[in-house]
Design goal:
- This protein is mainly beta.
- It has 2 helices and 15 strands.
- The longest helix has 13 residues.
- The radius of gyration is 18 Å and the shape is globular.
């Protein structure tokens, strides 16, 4: 699961009350990053890096996500931008509490940290930040990242092609709230091999699972224009399996687009709920 160079804010690019028909797979996946294309006058000649994504837990004990992304952009004239993002979050199975800590470092600069907790009561989410500065604020109608993925899977199973959600994931300075639009494509049966093979291709866990092509666009809720079309801050495209695993990532930052190919996946054991 994304700040611009970090390529997966919300890495973070998921459950409110985990419905029994959505069973998330505990796993660790590694994605290799490369430059897919540029647009306009973007000063990006090449990109490389890796994402390490570790997801564990269950509906009864909550879900823990650890995300690490190291990436390097070549911007020409022997200039490079190196970024390192590491986040750890926990979301309870009922989607009522979300804790997060995000450390970001650019080039040789100091590490900046975001640390906080968000709790839901009814339709209101109260966020209490410890870093970068102590602050408390509320958001109406937002969901957390695991809940977002759960709802996309549910919508896909119901044959829906569009899903709008307000999402809070603790990214940026901890105060960012996104309006999101998910566009869901036609289901792909598990026995249809991907056009470009990756770590899921020969794994029996995925051969019986349906997957869907999904594109989620993220819009800054604070800068929504009074009229006219708003440009997303970024968009993520991927193929989403029924168990929450994503393959064939594409991270679109308007000026440039990054591809993320799954190089490895390790399936982990999950303790059954008592």
């Amino acid at each position: 699961m994304v700040s611009v160079i970090m390529l997966a804010p919300g890495a973070g690019r998921s459950v409110a009350h985990a419905a029994p028909n959505v069973s998330f797979l505990a796993h660790q996946a590694v994605y290799d990053l490369s430059l897919k294309r540029t647009r306009g006058n973007a000063n990006v000649n090449s990109a490389r890096g890796r994402i390490l994504y570790n997801f564990s837990g269950s509906a009864c004990e909550g879900y823990t996500t650890e995300f690490r992304q190291v990436s390097q952009l070549d911007t020409g004239e022997n200039k490079t931008t190196l970024s390192d993002l590491h986040s750890i979050s926990w979301e309870d199975g009922a989607g009522k509490k979300y804790t997060f800590k995000v450390d970001t470092r650019m080039n040789e600069g100091d590490t900046t940290s975001v640390d906080g907790v968000a709790e839901r009561k009814g339709n209101t989410v109260t966020v209490k930040l410890k870093q970068p500065k102590a602050k408390t604020f509320t958001i109406e109608g937002a969901v957390f990242p695991t809940e977002q993925v759960k709802r996309i899977i549910e919508a896909a199973r119901e044959g829906k092609s569009l899903l709008e959600l307000v999402v809070y994931d603790g990214s940026d300075d901890g105060e960012k709230v996104y309006n999101t639009l998910a566009v869901i494509g036609q289901p792909i049966p598990g026995d249809k091999a991907p056009a470009v093979p990756d770590a899921t291709t020969n794994n029996d866990t995925f051969k019986s699972q349906t997957r869907w092509p999904v594109t989620v666009s993220y819009y800054d809720r604070a800068t929504k224009p009074a009229s006219g079309e708003q440009t997303p801050v970024y968009a993520m495209s991927f193929e989403l399996y029924e168990d929450g695993v994503s393959r064939a990532l594409t991270l679109d930052y308007n000026d440039f687009v990054i591809a993320g190919a799954m190089d490895k996946i390790d399936i982990r054991q999950t303790k059954p709920c008592k």
